Amino acid sequence: MTHGLHHVTAISGPARRNLDFYTRTLGLRLVKKTVNFDDPGSYHLYYGNGEAEPGSLLTFFPWDHAAPGRVGIGETQETRFRVPEAAIGFWTHRLIAEGVPHEAPVRLFGETVLAFRDPDGMRLSLVGVPRIEDEAAGETGTIPAEAAIRGLHGVSLLLREVGATGAILTDVLGFADAGREGTTHRFRASGGIGGLVDIREAGDFLPGRMGAGSVHHIAFRAADDAEQAAMRARLAGNHRLPTTEQQDRNYFRSLYFREPGGVLFEIATDIPGFTVDEPLADLGSALKLPAQFEPFRHEIEARLPALAD
User: Is there a contact between 257 and 265 (Cβ–Cβ < 8 Å)?
Assistant: First the structure.
């Protein structure tokens, strides 16, 4: 049974700019083009690796006029992608060539981390990981397969303190305590991609503010409905935390809850997956709508901004 992150969902500015950055600059695959199920007047864009695997996925609600967000307490501080260890040099040169704001590589828990920001100021990083060359990756015209992003590596959360959130990660979500470096506590899950959550203890600091460039929620993997239900029972029984009712997102089924540190957590099933309504080879090529919105397809398509000329 594999645990770890299922996906990260963030807010961005214009959809077209977001699509260009994540597919052309970073070489991720657009694996699903749909709408926000709670707001069908805006897109929900999913990016991932070549196989659209849980743990590889970063998704966006793009809003043209979204005000900038602010990183602070109770929010995801940084979203990290994993690349082969030898690819950090390639990515340093590529970020320079593309004019992407970035920092000098640093070492964290023995890994090389190259931090940068997307066009909305969202904090991202590439982490060089040894022996992952065989993991699924896409190949684009300017990014060779040996350097391509394999999926999420993990996230860092900026919290007042680690205790209650760490207990949920280890007791409910399948992570183990993997040690501490400075003010950062690391938790590791059994899977490869999406297998790390770092909690940076910051004490009293400004709270985060939702907006463009900020993370809306992070989702954790459950194999199926039965495992998700067991996680829900442990949350209620051991931590007195209720969740929402299960919500069908077509490609997974979700429960949501606000963890004690303030971050919105989701538990998402691996099933049915992204090939439920289009074949693997065609993922992301057509606008897919949930059944309740199909009668309104013409109106919805007319309101959505164009993604290409």
Answer: yes
Q: Hey, what amino acid is at 154? A: G
Q: Using a CB cutoff of 8 Å and minimum separation of 24, what contacts does 200-203 make?
A: 200/77, 200/156, 200/157, 200/158, 200/159, 201/159, 201/160, 201/161, 201/162, 202/73, 202/158, 202/159, 202/160, 203/160, 203/161
| pLDDT tens column, 193-239 | 999 999 999 998 899 999 999 999 999 999 999 999 999 999 999 99
**Model pLDDT, residue 267:** 98
- Give the CA distances from residue 248 to residues 1, 256, 277, in Å, rounded to whole numbers and listed in that order: 22, 12, 14
- Tokens read off for 287: 């606008």
Backbone angles phi, psi at 149, to 5 degrees: -65, 135
Sign of CA dihedral 277, 280, 282, 285: positive
The phi, psi pair for 156, rounded to 5°, reads: -115, 135
CA dist 50 and 148 (Å) reads 10
- Based on the number of CB atoms within 10 Å of its own CB, is 239 exposed (0-12), middle (13-18) or buried (19 or more)? middle
Dihedral sign computed on CA atoms, order 194, 247, 260, 9: positive
**47 touches 189 (CB < 8 A):** no
Distance CA 82, CA 95 (A): 16
Strand, helix or coil for residue 141? coil
| 217 Cβ contact list (under 8 Å, min separation 6) | 8, 9, 256, 263, 264, 265, 266
Which tokens belong to 83? 């690349």
Structure tokens given for 47: 């990016």
Report pLDDT for 204. Answer: 87
pLDDT of residue 167: 98
